[in-house]
Write a structure and sequence with these properties.
Rossmann fold, 297 residues, methionine biosynthesis, 2 domains, Bifunctional protein FolD, binds nicotinamide-adenine-dinucleotide, 40% helix, methylenetetrahydrofolate dehydrogenase (NADP+) activity, alpha/beta, EC 1.5.1.5
Length: 297
């Protein structure tokens, strides 16, 4: 029987543990605060920001939201960032991507105080992660690691194929999984849009992580017998539903399930973990800035 890895359940356990840590911080007069910054009015981004705010409320993190007009010059966003860097009640914040075309996201990220960079995207934090001394692990890769741990997947010496080389998923995950650490020690192959014979690389893997943003790119024939499949992809495809679309992953779930020993569903797999790990990083940021020790899950 193939195990369906329940991301909602694992995320819920992590949130419970974080709630305890947040109480410890609050008792010490240090309630964690997370800010979200949204430039423009992209509906998907608005939904993500709303979810992050709701998550905060549920676990007792103070949440603040900053809107910046989508047509404003970049300096307006930079000013909002400078304010958040100075605000002692904000321990962490995220600038929701994508930003409008006239703004260079890299210039935005460089302005974020690395101690408050709970996405883990600032070059200083990227460097620390690569050096094996991460301050904040980016939320999605960290969530994937926690899912693998929860499913009891042996990483040491495992062959992992990651499909996707983005700065927010593929690259940081590859770096984390090769670290000399209990949640690393794997041998990692990173595939991307120029990779030749993708199926050969996924088929030989003990663990396949799909993060390509390509609906159902990976089917059962590309999965080795007994492999573990983690599907990061979230893609909207037209469907005969009330909303006119449905969400599918980068993996063709039904055929992949036939071959895999364990697999994450979409939705309900990696998504809830990404959200939980943002709360984790916020609690970690508050603990560091307020100098209060807490147990992190
Ligand atoms: P991205 O577009 O930045 O990167 C996609 C990567 O996949 C690129 O490196 C590209 O080279 C590679 N790729 C694309 N098509 C390919 C193909 N046919 N064969 C091999 N490689 C291919 O995407 P991203 O931001 O890393 O996101 C990837 C997917 O994960 C998206 O569907 C996104 O919505 C989803 N996502 C989900 C979560 C979550 O919490 N569940 C978080 C982040 C991203």
């Amino acid at each position: 029987m193939t195990e369906i890895i329940d991301g909602k359940a694992v995320a819920s356990e992590i949130r419970d543990d974080l709630t305890d840590a947040i109480e410890t911080l609050a008792d010490a007069g240090a309630r964690p605060g997370l800010a979200t910054v949204l430039m423009g009015d992209d509906p998907a981004s608005q939904t993500y920001v709303n979810m992050k705010q709701r998550d905060c409320e549920e676990v007792g993190i103070e949440s603040i939201h900053v809107d910046v007009d989508g047509d404003a010059p970049p300096e307006e966003l930079y000013d909002a960032i400078a304010d958040l860097n100075e605000d002692p009640d904000v321990h962490g914040y995220i600038v929701q991507a994508p930003v409008p075309d006239h703004v260079d996201y890299r210039n935005v990220i460089r302005r974020v105080d690395p101690r408050k960079d709970v996405d883990g995207f600032h070059p200083e934090n990227v460097g620390r992660l690569v050096a094996g001394d991460a301050r904040f692990r980016p939320c999605t890769p960290h969530g994937v690691q926690k899912l693998l741990e929860s499913a009891g997947v042996e990483l040491e010496g495992a062959d992992v194929t990651i499909v996707g080389r983005s700065d927010i998923v593929g690259k940081p995950l590859a770096n984390l999984l090769i670290q000399k650490a209990d949640d690393g020690n794997a041998t990692v192959t990173v595939c991307h849009s120029r990779t030749e014979d993708l199926a050969e690389k996924t088929r030989r893997a003990d663990i396949v992580v799909a993060a390509a943003g390509a609906p159902e790119l990976i089917d059962g024939s590309m999965i080795g017998e007994g492999a573990v499949v983690i599907d990061v992809g979230v893609n909207r495809v037209d469907a005969d539903t009330e909303k006119g679309y449905e969400l599918v992953g980068d993996v063709e779930f039904e055929s992949a399930k036939e071959r895999a020993s364990a697999i994450t569903p979409v939705p309900g797999g990696v998504g809830p973990m990404t959200r939980a790990m943002l709360l984790y990083n916020t609690v970690k940021a508050a603990s560091q800035q307020e100098d209060v020790d807490v147990d992190l899950p």
